[in-house]
Amino acid sequence: MTTNMYENIVVTIAETPRPRRFRPTGALKGTIRVPGDKSISHRAIMLSALAVGESRITGLLEGEDVLATAAAMRAMGATIERMTDGEWRVHGVGVGGLLQPDEPLEMGNSGTSTRLLMGLVASHAITATFTGDASLSKRPMGRVIDPLSLMGAAFDSAEGGDSAESGRLPLTMRGASPAVPITYTLPVASAQVKSAVLLAGLNTPGITTVIEPVPTRDHSERMLKGFGADLTVEIAPDGTRTIRLVGEAELRPQTIEVPGDPSSAAFFMVAGLIVPGSDILIENVGMNATRAGLYYVLRAMGGRIEAVNLREVGGEPVADLHVQHSALTGIDVDPAIAPSMIDEFPVLFVAAALASGTTRTSGLEELRVKESDRLSAMATALKAIGAIVTESDDGLTIVGTGGEPLEGAKVGDSPIVTHLDHRIAMSMAVAGLASYNGVEVDDTRPIATSFPVFVALLDGLSA
Ligand code: S3P
Q1: Phi and psi at residue 430, to the nearest 5°
Q2: Which of 107, 299, 327, 331 is 20 to 30 Å from 210 by CA-CA measure?
Q3: Ligand 1: centre distance to CA 190 (Å)
């Protein structure tokens, strides 16, 4: 075991994999509340750390990824304190005020921490080294190195090169001050790349412009405006978004309530739909249109999910989701909806494996560069437990069972390989609930990166 101290949170990380078998449990019933949104939590810490004065955050996700962001912002000068569960206070250094970190910034498993923090460092006169775990060290950083180089930052990375898909951690970057404002058209639909450029633009003189042909999650834009940045979004008739940020911004401290994470709710949405007799209420789920794709796809498959008590929390639309066991039907998923459910495909594939008929997905090349190659990992995992899956370059085609449980693990099978990917582990846990024999995953440790209470909530619903 190793322990990391993040203020008064002690995170105990087992050094050896933690396998676990997820068995069929019977109907899931009850009311749960999922932890705070991971994307919003990262941004809340980062922007609070750049505002002068005290910001208060409630509902913060205390997963390892967000704790890595908090530790990095602390290493660059911000004062960040945990008051009680999910309630944090941050005293920022002001835009332009980040300090040289003494040690490498350890990013763990978190691509969002890495890419957004690279954006922040890019326009400060500091040099920082980013390191990560085996999964993160395989992921492409060229997609942020490219625009940040245009702004004046310099990089030295493993597997350097000039393609957006090269450049790996460990990586050292030297920020530029003053940085150069750019107009950048995103070559991949990526909220992380968009956010990296906008965050670099905060401390850059002039106007930084990001052109986004395909809309991605807009939490950075919403929160930058909320902190008082001069940011405008123009939407062309074809849907292209042009985001302009006036640099050398002054951010004002805020009180932020982080809504529940739709990407965490996703596992319980699918579990409730595929486990016979289930009836659950998931409270306080973010329903931002740039994140809500799974809700619409599951409903199109015949899923009984109702969004009730629609309201606004922390500048984001939120609802409670009432989910009941349903007979699902396979569909062709329109690739245009992919960015609004990019992290939810692994668990959608599980729903598809229990539906009647065929579900076809395409346009999902990006899934190959997430915490694992999620197309390959899910195809292999689902086939191992009896599902009928065909993998193509950019998607999976799945012929469902029509509601009959999957076979699950056979005697002598090795556990499902999760490749240090939290969402593969949780998706296959959900598959285990709708199987005859249960499913054993090789390692549950990565679940703590985004959803530390996942197993506890599952146990509570099946009690
Ligand atoms: C995120 C953006 C998405 C998503 C990730 C979180 C963010 O990544 O997969 O889990 O918070 O901006 P990409 O921007 O690479 O698509």
Answers
A1: -65, -40
A2: 107
A3: 6
Q: Which is the closest atom of ligand 1 to the Cα of 369? A: 15
Given 257, 288, 310, which residue is the final one in a domain?
Answer: 257
| Residue of 37, 65, 343, 421 marked active site | 343
Are 431 and 385 contacting, i.e. CB atoms less than 8 angstroms apart?
Answer: yes
Rounded to the nearest whole angstrom, what is the distance from the C-alpha of residue 426 to the centroid of ligand 1? 18
Give ligand 1 pocket residues (Cβ under 6 A). 39, 112, 190-192, 195, 217, 342-343, 366
CATH of the domain at 367: 3.65.10.10
Give the count of beta carbons closer than 10 Å to the beta carbon of residue 430: 28
Identify whether residues 411 and 369 lie together within a single domain.
yes
Which ligand 1 atom sits closest to the C-alpha of 189? 16
- Give the structural domain span for 172: 38-257
Q: Of 257, 285, 316, which residue constitutes the final position of a domain?
A: 257
CA neighbor of 315 nearest in space, from 396, 258, 400, 247: 258
Same domain, 115 and 148: yes
Q: Whose CA is nearest to atom 11 of ligand 1?
A: 39
Q: pLDDT for 45-75, tens place per residue? A: 999 999 999 999 999 999 999 999 999 999 9
Whether 277 and 182 share a structural domain: no
Which atom of ligand 1 is found nearest the CA of 194? 14
Residue among 69, 112, 369 whose CB has most ligand 1 atoms within 8 A, to mutate:
112
Answer whether 0.85 is exceeded by the pTM. Answer: yes
Task: Tell me if residue 444 falls in helix, strand or coil.
Answer: coil
Which pLDDT tens digit goes with each residue over 345-370?
999 999 999 999 999 999 999 999 99
* Rounded distance between C-alpha atoms, residue 412 and residue 285, angstroms: 40
Whether residue 343 lies in the annotated active site: yes
Give the tens place of pLDDT for each residue, 7-46.
556 566 788 999 999 999 999 999 999 999 999 999 999 9
Taking only the tens place, the pLDDT of each residue in 296-328 is: 999 999 999 999 999 999 889 999 999 999 999
Residue 440 has what pLDDT?
Answer: 98
* Residue nearest to ligand 1 atom 9, measured at CA: 343
Residue 187, φ and ψ in degrees, nearest 5: -80, -20
Task: For residue 229, give the nearest of 199, 269, 259 by alpha carbon.
Answer: 199
